Amino acid sequence: MTDIAWIEKAIRSARPQAIGALMRYFRDLDSAEEAFQEASLRALTNWPKNGPPRDTAAWLIFVGRNAGIDAVRKRARTTALPPEEVISDLEDAEGAIAERIDGSQYRDDILRLLFICCHPDLPATQQIALALRIVSGLSVREIARAFLVSEAAMEQRITRAKARIGAGSADFEPPDAIARAERLAAVAAMLYLLFNEGYSAASTPGKARLCDEAIRLARLLLKLFPAEPEIMGLTALMVLQHARIGARFDADGAIVLLEAQDRRLWDKDMIGEGLALIDKAMRHRRPGPYLLKAAIAALHARAQRAEDTDWAEIALLYQGLERLEPSPVVTLNRAVAIAKCEGPAAALALVETLGDRLDTYFHYHGLRGGLLAELGRPEEARTAFDRAIALAGTPAEAAHIRLHLDRLNLARPQLEETRND
Amino acid sequence: MLYAILCYNSEDAVGSWSKAEDDRVMAQLGAVEDGLAQKGKLGPVARLMNTTAATTLRKSGNEQIVLDGPFAETKEQFLGFFVLDCESLEDAIAATRELAIANPGGGAYEIRPLRIFKPAPEGFRGKALG
């Protein structure tokens, strides 16, 4: 890695903190972004010469703030620019500002920055695109590639989203405990959406990047809020799911089901991190939805072979999840676990209660077909599979069901990866 | 003389490396380790998980408090470390409590999971020094 590459990484990782603080100074996102851009350019010339500063974020904030003030003055054309030494002589200033840095203020800066992206008027995809642009600093081109749209279209989308969150919507008062918790929940939901946007199509180039970004931001959030069990759960959930990326697709890019994946390809470092975070979070006793989902993912990760999976425990965790977040899809997932540990009859009984609500859901008919087949009811199974094929969202999903239909060798219920949503 | 070399860097920056970049750095370090091992100088090597995975046991008087997150104060200095193989975090905390009781005074014990652990290779001269 060259020094410049290292500097670029350092700038990128300081970005949320720096932009968050600059936004607090300028009360305006565009000014903050411009100031950060200017500070980054100066870092690229200054750091290789003088060595990187000890606190990169503090440096970028300080230089960015001066640059931003310059820009304002330039625009106003009333005052002469301050001499270059004032901006460049950072040796003492850095120490001074570092002392003034108040951890909790930075924490709220970053949370605010993430939170403005979660504006309720914005559709989920725009929230995500905005967070990638503003907080992660991905280029419009990178974001466009991840969303499979043209650069121009994405540019327009981001500009519109920015205008929508624009003037006056950000609250610069330090949030109280309740507001902070609400912001945190909204941001967590947005990060999980971001993760899923990448996860669902991670074989597409550019998509997996979204998972990496979601994980990076979740780790950042966890650093700011180290005692929040749901943020531990969210981070654990994402790293445990992402750990499987190397095994989730075959050479043609088709999805490999969880039980058929080569578990040697799972990323052990990520699994280790996920398990460690779950251990920590469980000490808080009252598991929330992210933590329960993470615990389910952990049981898969812990199983050396698919047949070692502790399905009874997974069924219990889904039951806990149903209590916190009742949803027919969660119940369907519980049915999958029950099929594994109690057999197809018990699972089918549960699945049949979901018909009203999941009649247009691919996985419902897929699972039902599999269970019926297992119970020796091939005609009903065929009908269910036909319905599933009609509802398949991707060619791979349809092909998978067709395989079962063709062979009608329906020894096991076919399951999509046990996801939770 | 035995030395512990403690590595400090920005975990945000290191954490943003791609898998390929991380692998490359690990290979570079591995090459240096090999050279040291051949001279009998290399002892155990560990790479820690992120600080977000850490839990800290803080001791003041006879009281012990377990906190989420890494050791964050700067009033104390890094004085020593143990590597334990534990069944769970609870197990690790229990062991740490014993160590904290045996150790007089206050202080803090950061319990940080290891990401990589390589025991001392054969021929480590430090074994004889122990």
UniProtKB/TrEMBL annotation, chain A:
Residues 183-282 form the DUF6596 domain. One of its GO terms (molecular function) is DNA binding. Residues 11-78 form the RNA polymerase sigma-70 region domain. InterPro entries: DUF6596, RNA_pol_sigma-70_dom, RNA_pol_sigma70_r2, RNA_pol_sigma70_r4_t2, RNA_pol_sigma_r2, RNA_pol_sigma_r3/r4-like, TPR-like_helical_dom_sf, WH-like_DNA-bd_sf. It comes from the Bacteria. Residues 114-165 form the RNA polymerase sigma factor 70 region 4 type domain. One of its GO terms (biological process) is DNA-templated transcription initiation. NCBIfam families: sigma70-ECF. This is RNA polymerase sigma factor. It comes from Arsenicitalea aurantiaca. The lineage of its organism: Bacteria, Pseudomonadati, Pseudomonadota, Alphaproteobacteria, Hyphomicrobiales.
UniProtKB/TrEMBL annotation, chain B:
This is YciI family protein. PANTHER family: BLL7171 PROTEIN, BLL7171 PROTEIN-RELATED. It comes from Arsenicitalea aurantiaca. SUPFAM superfamilies: Dimeric alpha+beta barrel. Signal peptide: none annotated. Belongs to the YciI family. Residues 1-117 form the YCII-related domain.
